[in-house]
Amino acid sequence: MPAGGYFGRALVADVTDGASATLPLPDEVLRGYLGGAGLGTWLLHRLGPPGANPLAPEAPLAFVFSPLVGTSLTTSAKFAVVAKSPLTGLLTDALASSQFAIAGKLTGHDAIVVTGRAARPSVLLIDGDGVRLGDAADLAGLTAADADRTLRGRLGRGWRVAAIGPAGERGVSYATISHDGRHAGRGGLGAVMGAKNLKAIAVRAAAKVAVADPAAVLAAARDLRERSFGPATAKYRELGTLANLLAFNAISALPTRNFQAATFEGAGRLGADHDDASGKASAGSGDGGGVGAAPANLTEMRRVARSGCASCTIGCEHIYRVGGGRKARVEYENVFALGPMCGVAEPDAVLAASARCDDLGLDTISAGGTIAWAMECAERGLIDAPWLRFGDPRALLRALDEIGAMSTPLGELLAQGSRAASRTVGGDSGAFAPHVKGLEMPGYEPRTLHAMALGLAVNARGADHNRSGAYEADLSGDLDRTEGGAAHVRAAIETEDRAAVMDSMILCKFIRGVFTDPYREWAGLLSAVTGWDVTGAELQATARRIVLAKRLYNLREGWRPEDDWLPARLLDEPLTLASGREARLTPARLRAMIDGYYKERGLDPEGRPVVGSPVVGIVGDLGLA
To answer: How many Å apart are CA 303 and CA 292, to the nearest integer?
Structure first.
């Protein structure tokens, strides 16, 4: 009998012929990796052939749920999509919230793993009648949203759909998987799905899953719901993550024009105005929400609604008019990547570019970062595209269209991402390609956020702000964010560990601030659902296991020590701040922080596990070492 919240099995479907099998998931595996990103990593170790091309039929694509999915706990309707990334060649896991999480789990599985390649464009259908393939020829070329609507209209009540857009069909290396208007965005998971000739996966609930202590789960849900309305989540409710743009601009932490600057003169036109929502600035978020902000006009002119994810009480989604009667969700990262990163200050253009990414099925961070790199290459004469210039809205939209269609040599080049494109272009273009391990960098300036610099460098997924929230320490005021040292190392490890647990249980990170003793409180939630006697100390060990398991997978797939590093520009070019002070991150400082991180993680100076280290034993007990 599986623990509460689990079915104790994963579905493995081969779309080559529609065959499927059930993989048992023993309690020790579930307790060791929980679900979501953790269990997904275990599945890739188990089912992914070493060295397989990410786009090969045998490469698995895993949709992984968690024990909390389907409970009344707020923000728990989430799932992880896990695969080997075509962008990085290493592990990628992307989380998203939607009703797909609930319906997918209630097919009776803790994970759905897809392998093979269908003979023709197909949709994979999973419900109480089993697993089968349907024809999707008429869906080819549709946006993910249109494919979703078409399929749900055809299939009827109760079906939920995850689909790819044109970029995924064409194999753009940073294509997304979309569902209910949300996206599993980073690392090119849409390209993996497209390589399997799958336009969509449709699921319908067919089972129920019990929790161990329903009364305790209900009490915990009520308590967590009340806390979710408190000050720790106020910024997300009132402004959304767009509030970060003005805050980061004020402290020279907003990457601009491909990291050539850290402040953007057009930020005021793009940022969320605190007066627009609540009449006062929000504070204490840990993301820069307490830094202060200047007035802006994007929200005043275009925000039309606020919404929330499935099973969520926060309601962080802020909906904006795009034009032509259309609406789009707007968050900090897509505005940063398509605005300041590309030097574009026109709100209409940034919103239109964000909507274009949604239609095509493109990760906005990688799209913006790759285009910004190409703009700089064009200005330097390394790429023959005289029309491609920083600050030109038409150039931004044209570049997105060429990438999504892969219709021109430039579009084909940029569809590979900035790392692969820089290797083709050559010259010194690699020095300013904005990526770590091939994944384009999010909107955090490493030269003024040193704990975050370390987190970005060592993270298994690459340049990633969701798997390492080390910027929280940089913005806390408890350490000097431009003088990285031992405290920054501890902060990077602590936030990486917390993220590993939240991404595996799964809970939304926007609720992280309501927990005063996170591991103990998370253990209480997990115990009520599963019936296990989980402690905070056990969950801390689980976090370390998951972080190391990701590193072990990357080692197996060809990770090298030099992959844990930052772009040369960020180490060779200092920033001059408004105060006249110079902000610099030297190679020596970054090296010292990485060395400290390796030592604390039980790794040798090259980032590999030390034989006999207790931390390696944590993973070895479950057969991954």
So the answer is: 20
